[in-house]
Specification:
alpha/beta; seven-stranded mixed sheet; 10 helices; 7 strands; 22% strand; globular
Length: 219
């Protein structure tokens, strides 16, 4: 695990679209937020990254993982994109407020975006991350979404893409990982985040995230 993660263990970031203040005062969100904080640590711990350059988070929500990335790597600039649909109480303004409250507003940029067609040229980022986003994109081919996120990753860049990868939605992910290797990607592997981040598949399933897996590697 990157040594910088240990420094940030006591920083509790808002999740599920909640304002930090209201989230901290709500016991239910406090429990969920604590779990997601652990998930964020696990996602970032699998990145072999020197902290230089630009990070993209696909589907930043309230900005929690974007902000944690900025706190973990003080030299990096982090861009969070999200569609910010009407279902959740997420917004660009909320993300910016949360980034300011953690003192990283100068290194975090938030903008509207569509995971199906990212508004960035090929090979724009040193790191691409995502957490429980793709399964929310209705009617999309999950593997095509992953490839679109990887399109904007620089050659030599690293990625960590976490989601509830149910086979009926994602298909054969072991086969997809091999496809990436055949395309020239390196160190590609699937991490069982249901076990590693939640502690057990049973607990993850209670959160309706029992098929959680993290796709990691280097382009």
């Amino acid at each position: 695990m990157n040594k910088n993660h240990c420094k940030q263990e006591n920083i509790r970031l808002g999740t599920h679209g909640e304002d930090y203040g209201s989230w901290m005062s709500n016991p239910v969100f406090y429990i969920i937020g604590g779990i997601m904080e652990q998930v964020h640590r696990v996602v970032l711990s699998h990145l072999d990254y020197d902290g230089e350059g630009k990070i993209l988070e696909v589907g930043c929500g309230s900005g929690a993982l974007t902000i944690r990335s900025a706190l973990t790597w003080p030299k990096a600039k982090v861009i969070g994109v999200d569609y910010w649909g009407a279902v959740y109480n997420y917004s660009k303004a909320l993300c910016e407020k949360n980034a300011a409250s953690e003192g990283v507003a100068s290194r975090c940029v938030f903008q509207h975006g569509d995971a199906k067609q990212l508004d960035f040229p090929d090979e724009s980022f040193d790191v691409v991350i995502s957490n429980y986003v793709y399964h929310n994109v209705m009617g999309a081919d999950m593997q095509k979404l992953l490839l679109e996120s990887l399109r904007v990753l620089k050659k030599g860049g690293v990625f960590a893409l976490n989601d509830d990868m149910k086979p009926k939605m994602y298909g054969d992910m072991e086969g997809f990982a091999q496809k990436l290797r055949d395309m020239g990607y390196e160190e590609v592997r699937l991490v069982d985040t249901a076990q590693e981040a939640f502690g057990s598949h049973r607990w993850a399933a209670m959160m309706m995230l029992g098929s959680s897996r993290l796709l990691v590697g280097r382009k």
